[in-house]
Inverse folding.
């Protein structure tokens, strides 16, 4: 309306100009002219007053006060001072390039609270100022304050009084005026909008950020940098360059602690504490400040680390009296993530907080999303939950960095080609621990929450065990969380029922080649059942059997043999010598003895078992076929390769007929027949069989299943026997790398691959390299298998031969 008054005044000017050029008849009468002038003047005054009245009623969200602002009213536009930033070199390099060459894009440094977003932005601000750029730091509080601060930025860049008045009068939008001035500023600049955690509240008239018509725009003569907890690309649009922060690398995190408390311990101790703190900058600074305070109870990294388990609530989880102030909450580990949960609740995601609390009950491991159901949250909270509500809460927690997506699992987590692993999420360790503290503090009846989770875990474990091979990936994800079922179970019948389910799941893990999680699960179960049910209870014997199998798979044969021997004695006494479980214990004891190199003893036990199983179960029972296979393996170990070939060939035919050609046991028979053929010198035939089995195992079991890796190793053995040392060395090297990754450096299979790689290198004339590998293996095999194990003795012989040959060759060279 103020603009309308200006139009009327302009009209008066036109009348005057017109009268001076050509005077009409009515204009010769003065009283008429004065009357017209008076009417127009009154109209203009009225419109001007009415415009001011409407300006006073205009909502503040559209045009907040845009008077030339007083610098003292809204704080400084100066960036905060920070010490040297550790571990953010890559992000700062990207931001520096963007700062020096703005290309119609802006930067968003984003991530969960406590990752140091403001610190990174302040470090860039210091660099920008050193380069001669204008630096403006605006901290987000609300839309009114943002308008005032942005106006001050524009004024500092030369915004004229006339342009400011145009915005105030409503002829132009304030963001348009400010950004036009920033676009034509003579100096380069950096503008930081810090802590923009509610992007939807930033722009005027409800305009989405990604439309770039409000306060956030991707153009100008400088760089706009935003720090935010919102990590969604959808929020910020295509012109945003998102730089999500992650926890620091261990060396950098340890250095943060050393910077703050240089006398608190060694670099190694600092790094160990940093790892325990999840490498989170906020927690690192809190711990460093505590350790540097002379009156603190704990003054060393080691003591602080030891105290964390018992006193996390005091050291990092203490409540702050001013936690309701967002600026304070951001600086306190206990409260920083509650800001994000408050915001999610304000957005309508009421399940986000209870969902995060529920996840904190579980172990510090990736959580399969099939565990998180509406029924679980309803049972725990008493609040009706829906699938849509749960999914929205998960999406919100991820958007604010409170949930992360673990890296895609390697091929070992895929049981066969085309099988997708279940979706899963992960919590930062400190987010999980602090959320668990908050749950205990806020929930009067924590037992209800734990019972709801226990019920859901039991259902999931039952379904996964029943799924068999198709449940391998799910079993791997479930295993770390299942000990929760045992922590509060003291009723014998409950522990028996749970034990049956968990032992079946341990069998699934063993079949999947997941020996380490199977070992952890069986160890927890055995401890609980021994305490409640007794050492000879059938369920306890089943758990001891599962634990021993896992140890055998891990290559810890001596420990496995001890447990199998205990179980054999107990099962023979309790169940009888011909009970299938007793026969299984004898079979597995024999396998452990085979792993220890005691082939003759293993053969005797397998021979007894074959007779008993054939009599009790029948000659075509899978267990009888297993005993024949294992007896053949023991005979092969004793050097009776021809007899082993005959037994394996008969067993392969029977297993193919009874189990099918792709059953893992059938594939094992083909592998073992090829291995025995190799022992008889029929290397080409063995290589052909191993090549077939390798392809089939990769297809059926997955490329990183331990059995698949064994086939690759065995194919290398056959090629070595044919004198094709270069090909064999390549396969041994690949098998060694895979064994190290999947089974670990001390597993006997890994040591076997290194030994055979050394032999292949020796065959290629690379004696010094062969000696190095034999030397490593001798040390490891002596430690793992013992000094008298046949494999240890073989390593000693291999090292001596390689050293002697290398010495002789060097002598020949010198003599020439």
């Amino acid at each position: 309306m103020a603009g309308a008054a200006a139009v009327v005044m302009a009209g008066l000017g036109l009348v005057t100009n017109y009268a001076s050029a050509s005077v009409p008849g009515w204009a010769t009468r003065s009283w008429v002219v004065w009357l017209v002038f008076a009417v127009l003047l009154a109209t203009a005054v009225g419109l001007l007053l009415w415009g001011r009245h409407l300006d006073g009623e205009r909502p503040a969200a559209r045009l907040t006060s845009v008077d030339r602002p007083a610098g003292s009213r809204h704080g400084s536009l100066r960036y905060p001072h920070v010490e040297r930033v550790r571990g953010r070199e890559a992000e700062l390099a990207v931001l520096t390039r963007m700062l020096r060459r703005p290309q119609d894009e802006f930067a968003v440094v984003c991530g969960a609270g406590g990752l140091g977003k403001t610190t990174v932005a302040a470090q860039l601000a210091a660099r920008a100022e050193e380069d001669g750029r204008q630096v403006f730091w605006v901290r987000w509080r609300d839309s009114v304050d943002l308008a005032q601060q942005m106006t001050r930025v524009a004024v500092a860049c030369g915004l004229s009084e006339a342009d400011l008045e145009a915005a105030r009068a409503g002829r132009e939008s304030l963001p348009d005026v400010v950004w036009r001035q920033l676009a034509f500023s003579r100096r380069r600049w950096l503008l930081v909008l810090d802590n923009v955690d509610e992007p939807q509240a930033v722009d005027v008239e409800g305009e989405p950020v990604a439309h770039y018509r409000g306060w956030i725009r991707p153009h100008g003569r400088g760089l706009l940098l935003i720090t935010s907890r919102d990590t969604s690309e959808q929020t910020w649009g295509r012109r945003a360059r998102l730089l999500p922060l992650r926890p620091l690398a261990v060396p950098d995190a340890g250095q943060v602690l050393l910077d703050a408390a240089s006398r608190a311990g060694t670099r190694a101790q600092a790094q160990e504490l940093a790892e325990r703190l999840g490498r989170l900058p906020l927690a690192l600074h809190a711990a460093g400040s505590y350790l540097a305070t002379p009156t603190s109870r704990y003054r060393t990294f080691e003591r602080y680390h030891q105290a964390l388990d018992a006193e996390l609530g005091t050291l990092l989880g203490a409540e702050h009296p001013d936690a309701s102030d967002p600026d304070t909450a951001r600086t306190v580990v206990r409260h920083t993530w509650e800001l994000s949960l408050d915001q999610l609740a304000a957005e309508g995601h009421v399940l986000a907080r209870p969902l995060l609390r529920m996840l904190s009950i579980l172990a510090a491991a990736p959580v399969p999303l099939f565990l998180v159901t509406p029924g679980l949250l309803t049972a725990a909270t008493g609040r009706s939950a829906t699938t849509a509500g749960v999914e929205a809460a998960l999406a919100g927690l991820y958007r604010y960095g409170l949930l992360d997506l673990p890296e895609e699992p390697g091929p070992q987590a895929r049981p066969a080609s085309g099988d997708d692993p279940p979706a899963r999420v992960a919590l930062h360790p400190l987010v999980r621990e602090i959320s668990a503290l908050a749950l205990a503090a806020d929930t009067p009846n924590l037992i209800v929450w734990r019972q709801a989770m226990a019920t859901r875990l039991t259902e999931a474990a039952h379904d996964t065990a029943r799924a068999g091979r198709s449940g391998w990936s799910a079993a791997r994800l479930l295993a770390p969380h299942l000990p929760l079922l045992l922590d509060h179970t003291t009723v014998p019948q409950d522990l028996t029922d749970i034990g049956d389910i968990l032992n079946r799941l341990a069998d699934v893990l063993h079949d999947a080649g997941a020996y380490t999680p199977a070992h952890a699960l069986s160890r927890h179960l055995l401890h609980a059942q021994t305490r409640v049910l007794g050492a000879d209870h059938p369920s306890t014997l089943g758990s001891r059997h599962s634990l021993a199998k896992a140890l055998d798979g891990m290559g810890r044969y001596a420990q496995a043999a001890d447990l199998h021997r205990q179980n054999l004695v107990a099962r023979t006494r309790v169940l009888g010598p011909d009970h299938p479980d007793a026969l299984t214990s004898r079979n597995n004891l024999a396998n452990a003895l085979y792993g220890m190199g005691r082939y003759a003893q293993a053969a005797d036990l397998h021979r007894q078992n074959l007779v008993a199983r054939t009599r009790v179960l029948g000659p075509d029972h899978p267990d009888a076929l297993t005993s024949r296979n294992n007896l053949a393996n023991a005979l092969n170990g004793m050097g009776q390769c021809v007899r082993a070939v005959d037994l394996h060939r008969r067993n392969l035919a029977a297993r193919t007929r009874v189990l099918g050609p792709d059953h893992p046991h059938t594939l094992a028979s083909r592998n073992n027949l090829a291995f025995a053929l190799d022992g008889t010198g029929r290397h080409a035939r063995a290589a052909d069989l191993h090549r077939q089995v390798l392809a089939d195992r990769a297809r059926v079991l997955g490329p990183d299943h331990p059995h698949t890796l064994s086939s690759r190793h065995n194919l290398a053995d056959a090629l070595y026997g044919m004198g094709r040392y270069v090909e064999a060395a390549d396969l041994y090297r690949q098998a060694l790398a895979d064994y190290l990754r999947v089974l670990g450096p001390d597993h006997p299979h890994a040591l076997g691959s290194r030994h055979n790689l050394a032999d292949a290198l020796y065959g290629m004339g690379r004696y010094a390299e062969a000696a190095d590998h034999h030397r490593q293996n001798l040390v490891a095999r002596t430690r793992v298998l013992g000094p008298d194990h046949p494999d240890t003795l073989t390593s000693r012989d291999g090292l001596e031969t390689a050293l002697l040959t290398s010495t002789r060759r060097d002598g020949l060279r010198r003599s020439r």
Observations:
- The radius of gyration is 38 Å.
- The longest helix spans residues 30-57.
- Residues 333 and 523 are 35 Å apart (CA to CA).
